[in-house]
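Record 1 of the preview.
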Amino acid sequence: LAALPLDDDGACVAAGGWFAGWLPLVIAYLGDVRNAEAAAALAAQVAGGDEAAALTAALLVEPAASFDGEDAPARPTTADAADVSLALPPDCDASLLDAFLQEAPLQAAELGELMHKIAARMANRADFAQAKRIAHTFKGSSNIIGIRGITKVAHHAEDILEFLEEHPGDIPAALSETLIDAAGCLEQMVYALLGQEEPPAQPVPVLQSLLDWANRMDRGELFDAAEAPATLPAPAAAPAMPAVSEAAAVAVPAAGAGDAATQSLRVPVKNVDDLFRLVGELSLKIGQMQSRLKESSRRAQQLLVQNRTIQKRIFELENLVDIRGVAAVRQRADSALAQFDPLEMEQYDELYSVSRALMEETADARTLATGFEDDLAGLGTIAVEGDRIKRDLQYLAMSMRMAPVKMLVPRLQRTVRQTCHDTGRQARLAVDDNGTMLDGEILNRLADPLLHILRNAVDHGIEPPDERALLGKPAEGTIRLSFERQGQTIIVRCADDGRGLDYAAIRARAVERGLLPEGKAASEAELSRIICLPGFSTRDRVSEISGRGVGLDVVRTAILAMKGALQIHSAGSGRGTTIELSLPASLVALHALVVRAAGQAYAISSFSVETAIAPETAEFARIGEDLQLVFRGRHYPVRTLAQLVGEASERPDEAGLRKLAAVLTRVDDQAIALMVDAIVDGRELIVKDLGRYLRAVNGVSGAAILGDGTVAPALDVAELLRASVPALADACHAAAIAADTAPARRILVADDSFSVRTTLSELLEDAGFAVKAARDGIEAISLLASFRPDVLLTDLEMPNMNGLELAAHVRGRADTAALPVIMITSRSQAKHRQQAERAGVNVYLTKPYSDTALLDHIRAALEENRHDELAAA
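->
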């Protein structure tokens, strides 16, 4: 084209004709690249002679890869550690990774829900399509970024889902478990990349199971001919969900899975925190402005009253001046005016003029005061509108901190399944989140308590299948977890259909531990609170799941740290247990009742307030020597806020209490009347942290600045009331001492890999063991001086002193000669096993291994060691 003479019309016409004839030849060749005639015609168009023949031969060469997929690479049959690696490539695009991690948690949670629906045979075709689409998005996004582990798991899961979508039928239970495990593995990988969880302990078996099923499907071996394919239920009426390409899933993340209309914007967390801080400052300033407006309006009213008083005095002065002026004129012997009567011509003197001027100025001042009052009223209206906008902005800023509860569900499901596997129970977790959104900080801090509650429900609540059969219950128990928002309170309920609380056993153990005097009556509510004390357990034997008395104590401590409350209810033996958690909706914004005691303003969270009672309206009754407040037929023990905060040494008498206002509040299951000097107001407050120097102030969770600039401590009334009841503190102390009598079994881990040490430590601690970790054999020997383990876990290859040398050293010491030693290594050759046996290793595990297998070996070693100790005794 560059050599074409554009000024030669004939040459241009000839070139146009050549291109017009060349295009159909190209199209014909591309339609069938194996057609020799089409290739020869195209070659003849662009060359001649030998060149045309050579070009024809080149065009007829077979393509490297066919277009119909017949030569696609075969699916692998085995998985290795490299296939599940979460290592990021050196050239990883940070922006793509951020976009992926923003949407991945919600997508992983949705995938987990869909996998459970598929496993429960409740999924329709739309569910299969959506699950496949999410897996495809995971595969494409992670492949672009270079995260091999997520790519592999998502790829084979997508193929399985596609096969199931195209071949509807009864899905084998083992395949359902594999799909659920794959979804859980993907979710844990995502949270590991976010730094919120450890990587999956054993992802290789999960991938291997996916490969096995996918290869069976490739061979058409999934369904037997005898199985009658079941028709999948038709999808529910719902708007069509457009397919999302891999690039779009990364570059343009949606706000929710399948929501193409609402787009999200990535914002640094620091910017959100700054926005929330500024909203808090705005709230303070608007509150101060409203306080000043109220004060200005009050002064304007006083000014108007004062003006009316002054005006009245001016009128009196005017009348007096007029009367005295007339009398003075009559007495005046002024010949020039003598011919006029005083009433015929006004006579003005200086006093009269001044009084008239003063009266006019007073009228002007009254007009200005009236205008000032009107301006204040208009400014008050603007302030009300500003306060409304502030609240909207505050709610919007708070919503940016919110996260859906359903993000926790897959993790909770994994915990129930793992605990059922460890205990031999069968249980199903049903979650009703009602679309509840929680403050992200609360959601993160709520995870561990819920995990403890669910493990406790499976191990303590759900009976073994044979016992449930004798009781007429289904073999599979049900645990229902629900979330509900009530105003400023989040209610979380966990109910199981298990054996319920054994109050007789609880009472007997409480008496045995000295927590309850012999013969003293205790209500079911009091016995329910006792099981939350440190170290309390009705189990006689410690297991990896329970028996150490730390589960509900951990839950109670965590809930109290979030300024929440814990209640336990049981309808009786065999009728299940319900644990109810009450939490504030936010740990930052606080709707509070502002009260005054001993001249100081305090903020009491509305979360803990039942009712406020004005002075002189409460009734009191004396029960023995105790004075109690009576309200609506209920009796409330009386405490004064001034006493609780240390501003008063003794409580007023009954006459003095009647002059105080009452705030009915609740600590644990007990309602108490808190007497205050005055109830000021109820308002939304932003609570500030007290700083590092005042973190340990008992009963004070923070401070808020009121509109007039007053600093009001935000009180944790429950903590104040607990501190005022010495019996509870004594019980906690006694329980803590009792907990020392049942120490957890101890394990020493020696491994030079930090990630392995961390993963093993968390696994063993979650299983109920006390764990110490060493970086090599030398450090492990040093720990033996102060830490006597029941089992030693060691790697084979370590610096300074390897696992073989460590095992030989342990066997050579009299105090550790019988210590069980488990070696975990990637060396699987026979010579390594023989060397380990000669060094005294009891169990030789090669990677990859399962957590269940490792825990089984530890249990067997502990049991064998216990038998040896009993035999020696």
